[in-house]
Amino acid sequence: MGDRQKKTELFDQIARVGKAVGNGKRLELLDLLVQGERSVEKLAAAADLGLTTASAHLQVLRQAGLVTTRREGTKIYYNVAGLDVIRLYEQLRAVATDRVADVRRARDDYLGLDPTAPVDQTAETSREELLAKAADGRVTVIDVRPREEYEFAHVPGARSLPLDELAERLGDLPEDQEVVAYCRGAYCVLAYEAVNLLHDQGVPARRLQDGMLEWHLSGLPVENGQAA
């Protein structure tokens, strides 16, 4: 039968991970860290949190073994602890979306989607189609995330064109190729906004169906370093 007290202790310890991800802001911090290492200050600013609050949330994630830290001078940098943590986050998101209607409504509202409209297959492209076109030089791939995320890891051959710079850098895009934009993942609004901006300027563009999170999980190659 086993020892009841020891069994309870086992499940209580497992539950520490569940408690760590049982907070929207901590999930948002994980979502950011999937894109690459960041300082506490950068995470706080990106998640619209005070520094003390962000530090407290990050400590909970660290104590549950979901993130790691390193110190550089006076700054502390955080990163996800491993690919298994990225998978956990993606699965949690997928189960929530499949099982909770409010999640689907919130997602559609955030991304500006109309769930009653027919799916526009021409608005997006799959990873497989993107790889085939990129190999033949038939598409220009742009990464519209903040530059520091691009430098940490990006789709091979992609150009860094952060969304807040895109309108001023349209001249950097070739006139004779389709553009595919991608960002953090399937629930990232940046690529949607980038494609809308490009369409308004008469630039043929589509978005990747998902983003870097799913690219990582698929085991596809990535590049890192600064944009040329």
Could you characterize what this model shows?
The strands form 2 sheets. A 5-stranded parallel sheet has the order 4-8-7-5-6. The chain has a 3-stranded antiparallel sheet with strand order 1-3-2. The model has no long low-confidence stretch (mean pLDDT 94). It is globular. The chain has 2 domains: 4-85, Arc Repressor Mutant, subunit A (Orthogonal Bundle), CATH 1.10.10; 120-217, Rhodanese-like domain (Oxidized Rhodanese, domain 1). It starts with a helix and ends in an 11-residue tail after the last helix. It is built from 11 helices and 8 strands. It has 228 residues and is α/β, with parallel strands linked by helices. Helix 3 crosses helix 4 (51-63).
Count structural domains: 2
Q: How many DSSP H or I helices?
A: 11
- Provide mean pLDDT, rounded: 94
Order of helices and strands: HHEHHEEHHEHEHEHEHEH
How large is the share of residues in beta strands? 15-25%
For CATH, the homologous superfamily of the largest domain is named as Rhodanese-like domain
